[in-house]
Design goal:
By secondary structure, the chain is mainly alpha-helical. It has helices at 18-41, 44-51, 55-61, 65-85, 94-109, 112-124, 129-138, 140-157, 165-175, 180-185, 193-212. The longest helix is centred in the N-terminal third of the chain and has 24 residues, at 18-41.
Length: 218
């Protein structure tokens, strides 16, 4: 049995009209400006110029900068999260599935866009809490719920022994951030980033199965 992604994790249906294309054009421009200047340093004028639209057109789509950033966060999560969670759909053995999910999540959390989003959201959360809420609902919350659903299926199959699948899912994703996330977010160097990623991936799976695995897990 496969685990279905929640509807909010799936890419939205695409309109073929000019309106959807223009909205995407603005979001692409917003990525450039937010990445270069952060949330506070970005201006709607700069985003309009980068997007190749007038400020009037920009405000037809987004009422203010916070509204635009929230839409950008949602779009980024919808675009990337299904790829990271795709291994759950393949019905592979437990260890192989966890390894594939860990590899996908390590890739996702170390992407430049992911690092940029994290920095902005942490910085702006006290002033714009709805930005953090939007990110949580469209990103981590969906990832945790999806993995928890898969874990629950493994419990029913006897391949994992877990009392709280949601907590276990959070633990697994936290293990996937070991060493990598903070160094990336703080722009600290790696001696061997590729080797560190592989170490984190395999250690996360090993530690998870050491705690929750059964004799059917391997």
């Amino acid at each position: 049995m496969s685990v279905s992604l929640p509807p909010s994790a799936m890419p939205p249906s695409q309109c073929s009209g000019e309106s959807e294309a223009k909205r995407q054009q603005i979001l692409d421009g917003a990525l450039v400006i937010f990445a270069a200047h952060g949330f506070e340093g970005a201006s709607m004028s700069a985003i309009a110029r980068e997007s190749g639209v007038s400020k009037g057109t920009l405000y037809n789509y987004f009422t203010n900068k916070a509204d635009l950033f929230a839409a950008f966060v949602e779009h980024n999560c919808r675009e990337k999260l299904p790829l990271a969670l795709a291994p759950i759909q393949l019905n592979e053995p437990v260890k192989e599935t966890l390894t594939a999910v860990a590899r996908a999540m390590v890739h996702l959390i170390t992407l430049p866009e992911s690092i940029m989003l994290y920095r902005i959201i942490v910085s702006e959360a006290p002033h714009f809490p709805h930005l953090a809420t939007s990110f949580w609902q469209h990103g981590p919350k969906i990832a945790i719920e999806t993995l928890a659903g898969w874990i629950q299926q493994q419990v029913e199959n006897g391949t994992l022994a877990v009392d709280d699948p949601t907590f276990a899912a959070e633990q697994f994703f936290t293990l996937c951030q070991t060493r990598l996330a903070h160094r990336k977010r703080f722009n600290m160097p790696f001696e061997n980033e590729s080797a560190d990623k592989e170490k984190v991936i395999h250690a996360a799976v090993h530690m998870f199965l050491a705690t929750y695995g059964t004799n059917k897990s391997h």
